[in-house]
């Protein structure tokens, strides 16, 4: 230890040893009780809590700031225009300079009294990751809201266990601890999508991580509502697929192309309806195209680019840009198809070549212009 570091330690000015990373969205009623609970659970240790909040509309951001003004152990990281539990945890953990990071939910469902045991297991070196587990002896999952949530959780666990390189009873746990340097080393390989950051870490680590499970209870949420929905479940399947394909299959592109296929169906359907109503083909096709673009935009905004979702005026502006991008894509489609047809005289080959160029163009422009970071 340097002289300056020894002096800071003696003055009680040394940085925290533990950062508790808490992703939170609309948790205004929970952040205060959580800080109070951490004060009790981590008494005698050097710790901080980092709330990573995605600009919650319910006042969570302000509540965290008010707590931080009075308590130097509280830090807040507010992300604007972003959503996502896993990506929030990644940014929080990378903002930490502590030796150990622990991750827990911001709704009081995790039993904070087990935090010390998680941290000690990592510090002792018996494991790389200590996981608060509801599925080892002494663990308890009674806080899950209903039978449907139990079935979902159990199904997810079975699915994850098929891919994991380590034996783990509760891979769906969001309560765990590891060294900050271990997290930082794996961070460049993480998918960062969805809710299951532990699964992401275990599947992304270049070297298998040694895991220790520590029995934990799981309480009912204190205040507010769960943010888990059907799309989060889809993201979990996408995460597993992404890891199974070792990242060579860009899942966002696959989602974009599938949405594009839906668009073709919508275009055909609306065009046929318009024809049935007596419109000429060019008008009917024009109506079908516009409706398909609007529906594609909505689907991409809520699925493909969910983490960068546009709202309000930005959504209207995004739709106009998207239509412009797709119109240029359609022109490129016809141009390329025409060029290929002149060389090969093959309708199908020419048509597929045009469609591929258009979908790649639409995707590249959508990612960089419409839903830019
Ligand atoms: N920053 C951030 N936190 C989130 C997001 N979605 C969920 N969370 C937080 O992640 C934790 C777990 O989410 P929760 O909705 O309780 O999931 P459940 O326990 O599976 O029902 C809670 O603290 C949420 O506030 C998000 O999009 N961004
Ligand atoms: Mg919860």
UniProtKB/TrEMBL annotation:
* UniProt keyword annotation of Transferase present: yes
Q: Which GO terms describe its molecular function?
A: dolichyl-phosphate beta-D-mannosyltransferase activity
What residue stretches are annotated with the GtrA/DPMS transmembrane domain? 256-371
Q: Which UniProt keywords apply?
A: Glycosyltransferase, Membrane, Transferase, Transmembrane, Transmembrane helix
Keyword match Transmembrane? yes
> According to its UniProt record, where is this protein mainly located?
membrane
The record's annotation in InterPro entries points to:
DPM1-like (IPR039528), Glyco_trans_2-like (IPR001173), GtrA_DPMS_TM (IPR007267), Nucleotide-diphossugar_trans (IPR029044)
Record protein name field: Dolichol monophosphate mannose synthase
Naturally occurring in which organism (per UniProt): Acetobacter orleanensis
Q: What is the lineage of its organism?
A: Bacteria, Pseudomonadati, Pseudomonadota, Alphaproteobacteria, Acetobacterales
